[in-house]
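fwd from M.: "can u put these together and see what the complex looks like"

so here's what she sent:
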Amino acid sequence: METKVMNCIMCPMGCEMTVTLENGKFVSVTGNTCPRGAKYAETEVTDPRRMLTTTVRIQGGLLPLLPVVSADVLPKGKIADCVAYLRNVTVQAPVKAGDVIVPDILGLGVNIVASRDM
Amino acid sequence: MELYDVIIIGGGPGGLSAAHAAYENGAKKILVLERDRELGGILQQCIHNGFGLHHFKEELTGPGYAGRCIDLVKDKPEIETLTDTMVLSVTKDKQVTAVNPGKGLFTVQGKTVILTMGCRERTRGAIRTAGERPAGVFTAGAAQRMVNMEGYLPGKKIVILGSGDIGLIMARRMSLEGCKVQAVCEICPYSNGLTRNMVQCLYDFDIPLYLSHTILKIKGKDRVEGVTVAKVDERMRPIPGTEFEIECDTLLLSVGLIPENELSMAAGVEIAPFTNGPRVDQRRQTNLSGIYATGNVVHVHDLVDFVSDEAEIAGKFAALEAQGKLAAAVNTVEVSPINGVRTCVPQVLHLPEGGEPVRLFMRVGAPDRKVTLEVKCGEEVLVKKLLPVVKPSEMITLDIPAAKTKLMQKTITVGLQPK
């Protein structure tokens, strides 16, 4: 049995929660004041995910960089790899907000899309 | 001189939301003046997400939110926008003088004017940090613009002073770009950012946060080489003997924002203490008739959603005034923040016959839990609201129905019920 202390991010309360794990598997959580906290705690210890926002190079645009965002959350452990991949991506203007810049990044099933028109 | 119903100074989310609300409320000739090369304001450099949940009911990036605001004003012949245009002066008679490369120097006349110039960052000079004057000291927002829009990295080994949301967001951004963020130092005993940002911007990247610490000295002759950090006591004075060094080539400052009111003050707009922005009524009218102010120029917001909400109020009433449709005020009420509420906008109410719905935007002085916010007139409680948690960094809102505003006389107080 091991325990992990974490802050809930579901609302401004920021409850401090203690999660109990056994062999890396979620067992229980204490300190949360609502069910959303319990769900967050379980996901956070078993399969933490994050949105990714970064930039790619763009040619022929108002700016040299185009802001992009993942269309959904990505596994936290893959964020650095995704950023490294996007560092080598260059697109051509014009681009519309929502255009897919990289489909299915690194085979993770999530598209990277443009955050704005340029 | 060209005459407009509403002239708006600033094309950020505040100005654009105000322009759209003015259009929706019948203004026929609206002008938005923006000094940057494109509309959207500071959101264009805030590429992270988390914007729009309140206002658009959808999670957007900064540029995404800006795009929504730009869509609200485009393709409408009633709304004219001029970018690359610097406003030089606004007079109390609502004449606006500006300059841009196409038109040169020009003056336009407004029936009403809305001030939405936003705010700017406090700099090293504002916090009087001792030491050398090397290159490598930036405000967090300036670094954000370099990294997210211009394509330059300000440095490789970073220390951030201030744990407000901009500082935290930049800690993550610099880490993703391959920089090493050595530490975030915060003079307060608590973080001034959202818990979500603490977790996702600091803990995810194992960046140490030093609470109750400040930077005493910046070292380095030509380029920053490091900073001297010390613990502070409860009165924020450095404690001798607690100093230590952190090596870095760049220092980012996230030490607060100041409403940008040079134009307002030159026009004769009265500035309120604590918020450092124009003193406004519930319609966002300043002390000068026909001159309105809204957004970060009035008080610094943590959520752009609230900027849009407030700007819609200003846009609506400016449009109504331009058309001669504004209900005359018969009752003037002062709003006085007390008992733990540090600031409240609006500062004054000008109520018409029958009252008017009013939304108050407040900040508390210190973090607390399970408090009751109450609006009182004399001893009578008009409205109250239970709040599970309050923080200085998170703005609170409270709606007062029109019927309750009818009961107000002279002064109302807004405060936390003593425990």
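replying to her w this: The interface with chain A takes residues 37-38, 44, 47-49, 61-64, 66-67, 148-151, 176-177, 194-196, 198-200, 204, 388-389, 391, 394 of chain B (CB under 8 Å).
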